[in-house]
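Researcher: Batch entry, complex prediction.
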Amino acid sequence: MTVTATLQHHRPRTLAEACELGRELGARAVYLAGGTELVPPANVAGRLPGEHLISLRELDALRGVQQEADGTLRVGAMTTLAELTREPLVAEHCPALAETARLMAGEQVRTLATVGGNFCAAVACADLPPVCLALEATLAVQGAGEERRVPVEEFIRGPRRTVLQPGELLTALCIPPQPKGSGTTTQRFSLRRGNALAVASVCARLTVENGQIREARLALGAVAPVPRLVPAVHELLAGKPADAALFETAAQAASEAAQPISDVRASAAFRHQLVQRLAKRALEEAVQRASAPTTEGAA
Amino acid sequence: MNDRAAVPQVNGKAAPSGASNGATTSNELGSVLIRVNVNGVPRSLAVPPTLTLKNLLREELALTGTKGGCEAGDCGSCTVLLDGEPVTSCLVLAVELDGREVRTVEGLGDHGELHPLQKSFIKHGALQCGYCIPGMMMSAVALIERNPEPSEAEIVEALAGNLCRCGTYPRIIKAIQSWRDFAETPLDTKPHPDDEHAPAGEARNGKSAEALRLRGRHAVVTEGVTRYDGPDKVSGRAVYTADIQLPGTVHGKILGSPIAHGIIRRLDTSKAEAIPGVLAVITGKDVPDTKYGVSPARYDEHVLAKERVRYVGDEVAAVAAVDEATAQQALAAIDVEYEELPAVFDAESAIQPDAPQIHPETPRFAGNLNTVVEWDFGDIDAAFENSHLVREKRFVGNRTYQSPLEPHATIARWEHHGERLTIWSSTQTPHYLQKQLSRVLGLEMGNIRVIRPAVGGGFGVKAEVTPLDLCAAILAKRVGRPVKMCYSREEMVRHFRGRHKQTIDLKIGLDREGRIQAVHHRVLLDGGAYTSYGVITAYYAGSMLPTLYRFENYRYEGKRVFTNLPACGAFRGHGVPQPRFAFESLLDDMAHELGIDPFEIRMRNAMEPNTRTINALDISSCEFRATLEQARQRSGWTEKKGKLKRGKGIGVGCGGFVSGAGYPIYRSNFPHSNALIRVHEDGHAATLHIAASEIGQGSDTVLVQIAAEELGIPYERVWLVECDSTLAPIDLGSYSSRVTLMGGNAVKMAAADAKAKVLQAAARKLGCDPHGLTAREGRIYIAEHEEVGMPWHEAAHLAFCANGPVIGTGHYSPPELGGDFKGSAVGTSPAYSFSTAVAEVSVDLETGYVTVERITDSSDAGTVINPVTFHGQVEGSAIMGIGEALTEDTLFDEQGKLKNGNLHDYLIPSIAETPRIDTTAVESFEPRGPFGAKEIGEGSLLPIVGAIANAIYDACGVRVTELPITPEKILAGLEQNATA
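Model: Structure tokens for the complex:
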């Protein structure tokens, strides 16, 4: 271990500048958002990774929550989890997102941690990717050219790996208008009620039309190398009315789709069990929300 | 992280080109100029890019109210407000602060007047060790500024990121809820009305008539007063060891072995020594040959490994450098070649004939046996034969870690002509530290000054000398400058000294009515690589079972075994919580089998006062039955037991502990506690000099109360000096729950001695016999004629003018205790506490998640000297017990490497785990205690784990015998029950 000899701090003022810096510096540079992933290992090692630290703090383009013309909610990548829990637009259009953020960490970490960071860190137990998979969200990526939109399922390539190339920045989380008659929920299990990492989580969005499930998006967190959707659940439920036995079968499918590992928090076998039970709860809760008179997307 | 050195070291190297557009903010040194407003003061600072906000505050701005506990955003001790929002300052880089506003605990309040929230914390006793409090306070300020009347749920959500290991959560919630009540009131020492008087129930037998008689007789003890350390701890003014910055300080770090077992074949420090800023590197050859430890017969640790390493982390070398980052860098440059040996990681394997030998050079440790206890009292074989019901079960405990929020820290400085050592250390036992330094360094105790600053929690982990203390002393001698050494969270867990993992085979025989006939108790203790407190642990694991229930036939076989894991030591309840969990679980099962109510079976077996147990422990006061009765009533047991729906359960557990060990850990004739009281010249105050160690339990407060009561002056007039061996005589420290009884007796005696001198002067002035005088609340008067008297301070002033300094001395040693069999000393005590706890839980039958909803606790702690600290300790025990029962376990991989040396995978309870807690005491009077008092700090933990385990069984029919009781184990049990 050597102390980084030439750690430089950069504070770009524009998105273009930030991207250019990243492109120029390549692997020698690290983008700094909330710091909650970057700083703890540095506190142990006595140094930060890389030689250049590119702060994203000044980039107004990454801040704020707006609604686009087509109703898509654009959540700036530098939006903090704490802001997510309090943002009226989020509460109105996708309350499940705010609820999920509220389950994460403690308030003093939520104040720092950013939406973008939760995706870019690409850790298996991240909490926003599963709910965003359920919400059919995409991620806005800015490089040298035009902004491109990457579906959440494509963004995370593997543990600690994303599609981002040097010089590319995740700029926003984009949540499309939620279908009429849909309900979304996160069921998250951790070993302590307050401030603990997820052992398993299941997020589900059900869209109900004329008493029948039109679409089921069920996503898993912390039980596979990357958060993932379980298409089998949609196949089982689509076109059928909500039904306890059916949900049981779907939950079983979710459990089978999980690829958990045994680690310090739980065994793989227990995680399989959890997924099954959380999935059932998520489906029940989602269908209830979908049928409630004032759900997301119902207006 | 302290990276100040990282920057100077880059001096001279060219600033990077490439990215040198206008966006770069670093100067050629890598430092960045920021403008930041700290507590209303604008500052311009040049900060290196790796400096965290926490270290900027603590090290550059000397704002040490902000603490560090984990460096990972897990504990919240470093919480400050950034632009009004709470943040963990250990995760914020100072370079990101330009143009922003920071508020720390030092910025609360107004011109020396405390913020109403701070007052509320003091009034509610919402602090113990105090280490988490500044962070807690900042989270709470952010909350009330946004929402002045937060609900309990909102408080819990806002504070879930602030951990408190003392378990002060219930008081913190109340303090935040009622913060506005204290906005206008000036701060006095009257606590919140809930804590004004000692809790008490009905006395159940004549022995406690004394307690009733004494009611209302006291002016200071038994009356609630706010904590002595409250104002300092809520304001960030309390100084913990790591807060001290002596001029010229350099920083030390220790290199630990990367392998679990091996021989050091080559060790080259030359590259490390060549690093600029490195001042000294020491290895095994530079440290004395004298081994240290806790029990004299088994001193088995060298300051640094001489040859063999026995666990991952075993200390191999130490470095002193200009700052921590350079020291870290030097550690990495030390070249060590090991010959790796086979290692063993569990006790059962370690005692097999072909197991690797961990201490081959020590014949008494052959077979990896560290301590073997064999006790046989009565005739258990016959008694089992005659029992109506005999059951045997295996229980397995967990390696829990004390996890104080404050990591260990030490500063050593050599003084005078270089022959005197002063050491500041976060220790519970300043005297044992002094003793070991003296032994290892070959220095008289008289040349060693030990100063114990505020301690941010201990629970046993700070009850022995650490490699930090020893290395700091040796390095400081070498470099001629003060050396500061602090453990990181991971380093402290790696050094461990936490609870032993015990494998317990327990067999109980009952008669038809549920009376205990015989107990056979076999315990295998996994002790890790060294002895530490382990000899005593192995004895405690057996000695304390007979103190709670009466039985005459008892066999205990204890075996403490070495493994290649970090050494285990003493942890709150020392050796007893796991056997207690086993006993309370098995007794409950047997009660069910016999159709006897769990309370009833405990009543039938409960200890009586003035009993000598089968293992020669003298129980004097004992109101155990009264605690059972009170807990049964207050918990609503009769209405709930057997009537709750599936998934909800109620369970009882009992426990108790010593009020101070009857014998010191090494043989000496020193009185165990000693005190001086010096009455100030003008008579308006008195200073108590005692080296007893406040570690959060409230001992300073209780000792000051006892001094004030005995002197006859108000609580507010007594000072207590910081624990310093040049200012206060020897006290054995804070372990075995000894301070209230032993320290209290010494203080009471010293106060009586000083008071006698004051009364002499008063008698001369009043022209009466001093024996006829009474001193109370600052006034001295003739007992028979209360109107004839004089102010206390005038008499004290006269006493000083006539005879010079008015000083009282006091000391305490326990009476001769114990039997004449081997090991009978462990478990002896002048007095024993007793308590009963009822736990109510709900179990999620689908996920196995357990929520502890309510704990009802009733304690026999003798006279309760201070209701605030009493309740604080019991509530804290309830919360710690939840962690021990449900989530805590230190884990290692198959190479013996620590897997969860942090606070996000070693889960201590957060504020969100706080159940409803009802704590109360029964009327009791201990003749050997000061004003009738005995302990509460450890005994109160003992019933909790068993109570929770029994409640879980009641809720779902699953008896988990292996701690912690995780959701996974509960689900497995539910499945097993379903298929059975």
